[in-house]
Design a protein that fits this description.
43% helix, single chain, globular
Length: 312
C-alpha cells in the first residue's frame, strides 16, 4: 500500500514537472499578455518580400529603416520570432520591448529585417526545416545587400524564445554564407534535453494523457520536432567553442517556460571558452517580457544597442 502511494505521488510530481516544463505557459497564453505599441513615425518599411519559395510556399520578410536615411551601407539586424517552434509570425516584432528596440536600432542607421519561416508540425516540418529557412534568409540578405543599402559584412541576429534558439544555432553552426557578428538572445532555450526529456514513468504518461490531453499532445509534437539526437546536436550549450559568436543574453528570473537556468548554463559555457558575452537577468520578468516597465525597457534597449554597436 505504501509502495502504491509512493508511485502515485511520484507520478503526480512527474506530471507537475511535465506541465511546468512544456506548457505552464503556452505561446498563445504569452501573446495575451503582450501590449502592442506603435512603430516610430520616422520608419520606412518594405513588407512581404519573398526570400524563398519552397513546397509551394512563399517565405517572406519585412525590412525596416529610418525614413529618408541616406546611408548606403547599413548594418542589419535580422529578427527571428518565437512561438514554441510551432507558431508565431514576423509581425511579433511589434510588441513591447521588441518594438522599442526596432525604433532604437533604426535611429542608429541600422536596417532591421523580420523573417517568417516554415513552422514545425512534427510531421512534414521539424527543426531542421526551420533552421534551413533562417539560414537561407541570411543568405538572401547578403546576396541582396547592395539593392537595399545593406552592409553584407555587418549582419547580426536577434531572436526571442524559439527564435533566439534558432539564432543561436545559426550563429554557433555557421556556413560560409551565414557568418554573423553577434547574437541577441532574448530568453532562448539552450539545453533542449533538460527542457524536453524530463523523467516520466509509463504510469505518469498514462495519467498525463488522461488528465491533460492537450498538454500531452503538445509534448508529443515536441518529441517529433526534436528527437533525442536533435536535442544533443542542436542544444547551444553543446556547441560553444573558442570561435563562437559574441552573445548577449537577456532573460527573466520568473520565466517558467524557459527557466533561467537555461541562460546560466549558456553563460557558463561562454565563460569557459572565453567567448565575448554579457548576461542580464530581469528579476520581475516572466517569459516573453510581457509587462516590462519603462526602466526595464530602456535597459533592454540600451544593452542590446550597445552590444550591436560594439560588434558592428
Amino acid at each position: 500500500m505504501n509502495r502504491l502511494k509512493f508511485q502515485l505521488s511520484l507520478t503526480t510530481m512527474q506530471l507537475m514537472l511535465l506541465v511546468f516544463v512544456t506548457s505552464s505557459c503556452t505561446h498563445s497564453d504569452i501573446m495575451k499578455g503582450f501590449v502592442k505599441v506603435e512603430p516610430a513615425t520616422n520608419v520606412d518599411s518594405i513588407s512581404d518580400i519573398t526570400y524563398k519559395n519552397i513546397d509551394g510556399k512563399n517565405l517572406k520578410l519585412d525590412i525596416y529603416s529610418l525614413k529618408g536615411d541616406t546611408a548606403k551601407s547599413r548594418p542589419v539586424v535580422i529578427y527571428i520570432h518565437g512561438g514554441s517552434w510551432t507558431g508565431g509570425d514576423k509581425s511579433w516584432i511589434h510588441f513591447t520591448a521588441s518594438q522599442a528596440l526596432v525604433n532604437a536600432m533604426i535611429k542608429e542607421h541600422y536596417a532591421v529585417i523580420s523573417i517568417n519561416y516554415r513552422l514545425a508540425d512534427g510531421k512534414t516540418y521539424d527543426f531542421q526545416t526551420e533552421l534551413s529557412d533562417c539560414r537561407d534568409a541570411i543568405k538572401w540578405v547578403r546576396k541582396n545587400a547592395e539593392k537595399y543599402n545593406i552592409n553584407s559584412h555587418k549582419i547580426g541576429l536577434w531572436g526571442t524564445s524559439a527564435g533566439a534558439h534558432l539564432s543561436l544555432i545559426c550563429g554557433y553552426l555557421p556556413t560560409d554564407s551565414t557568418d554573423i557578428k553577434f547574437i541577441l538572445n532574448y530568453y532562448g532555450p539552450t539545453n533542449l534535453n533538460k527542457l524536453f526529456y524530463t523523467s516520466l514513468s509509463p504510469i505518469g504518461l498514462t495519467v498525463a494523457k488522461g488528465i491533460v490531453p492537450k498538454l500531452y499532445a503538445e509534448r508529443m509534437v515536441m518529441m517529433n520536432i526534436f528527437p533525442r539526437n536533435f536535442c544533443d546536436v542542436y542544444s547551444p550549450v553543446n556547441l560553444v567553442d573558442h570561435y563562437s559568436t559574441p552573445t548577449l543574453i537577456l532573460h527573466g528570473s520568473k520565466d517558467k517556460l524557459v527557466p533561467p537556468y537555461q541562460a546560466y548554463e549558456l553563460e557558463k559555457q561562454l565563460t569557459k571558452y572565453q567567448v565575448p558575452h554579457k548576461m542580464f537577468i530581469y528579476p520581475n520578468q516572466a517569459h516573453g517580457f510581457t509587462h516590462p516597465n519603462q526602466r526595464e525597457i530602456d535597459d533592454m534597449v540600451r544593452q542590446s544597442v550597445d552590444f550591436a554597436r560594439h560588434y558592428f
